[in-house]
Design goal:
With about 160 residues, this protein is an all-alpha fold. The protein folds into two domains: about 10-65; about 70-150. It is built from six helices and no strands. Helix 5 packs antiparallel against helix 6.
Amino acid sequence: MNGGGKTTKFREFFLAIAVAVIGTVFWSYLQNLPLHDLQSAKFPPTMKYGCASMLVIIVVKYLEKYKNTYNKFLVHIGKNAIYYYFGQGIGSSLCYIWADKIQLHNWFIKWVIIFGINVLTTVCVAEFLSISYKMIEKRINGVIKLIVKGKVNLK
């Protein structure tokens, strides 16, 4: 690995993945947690969840060398992360409500529909919150400037 944490050779990548997988299995065994259930290991955080999370980080850092441009939409989401966080909470709640109302026997098609509802709701709510916040902030800053200049009498 180089100083940036990137695995530059496939051998290093494979060894890092192997260590993370072995760590996940080892900690799952020590903590008497089922190997397939990461949700129960998420909070409070456990070593099993940490090792499993490292798998994704290792893969992303290895594949980073193949991607040298940034996706503008993902950068936008990163800059507005708090709004997307709230939007995801609302979107996932709506998915919970709609999952029982969609009567399909094919689970894959139902999953795709629910996923679409989740993504659409998340983006709509996040963008609405972002725009609303910017509008409110602009109005409040305008009022503050008037108060500072002495054009508004608060008595």
